[in-house]
Design brief:
This protein is largely without helices or strands. The protein has two helices and four strands.
Length: about 110
C-alpha cells in the first residue's frame, strides 16, 4: 500500500508534507506534488501534515481519486524529488477545495 496525492493538491501545492517523509518519496511538478508508490513505506507521517487533506491512503481512496494512484506513479518517475518545504503558490488559497482541477495539471 502507498499514500496518494489527489486532485486537491493541484494548483495549491502546499509542501508541509515533504519534510516529514523519512524516505524522500515526494516529487514536485510545476503545480502538483506526487508520491512515488515504490518508495513510500506507508508510514502515514505525511497525511496529517497536508493542510487541505490532499493525501490519502490507497485503501481509503474514493472512486474519483483512483486515477491519481497511476498519475502519482507516472509523474514520480519523471519529476524531481522534493525534501524541503517551500512557500505555496500565491493563489493557493483560491484553489483550495475546488473540483475538476485535473485539467489544470501542468506536466
Amino acid at each position: 500500500m502507498t499514500f496518494v496525492v489527489t486532485e486537491n493538491c493541484i494548483k495549491c501545492k502546499y509542501t508541509d508534507c515533504v519534510e516529514v517523509c523519512p524516505v524522500d518519496c515526494f516529487h514536485e511538478g510545476p503545480n502538483f506534488l506526487v508520491i512515488d508508490p515504490e518508495e513510500c513505506i506507508d508510514c502515514s507521517l505525511c497525511e496529517p501534515e497536508c493542510p487541505i487533506d490532499a493525501i490519502v491512503a490507497e485503501e481509503d481512496m474514493k472512486p474519483e481519486d483512483e486515477p491519481f494512484l497511476a498519475l502519482n506513479a507516472e509523474l514520480s518517475a519523471v519529476w524531481p524529488v522534493i525534501t524541503v518545504q517551500k512557500d505555496p503558490p500565491a493563489d493557493a488559497k483560491e484553489w483550495e477545495g475546488k473540483t475538476d482541477k485535473l485539467q489544470y495539471l501542468e506536466r
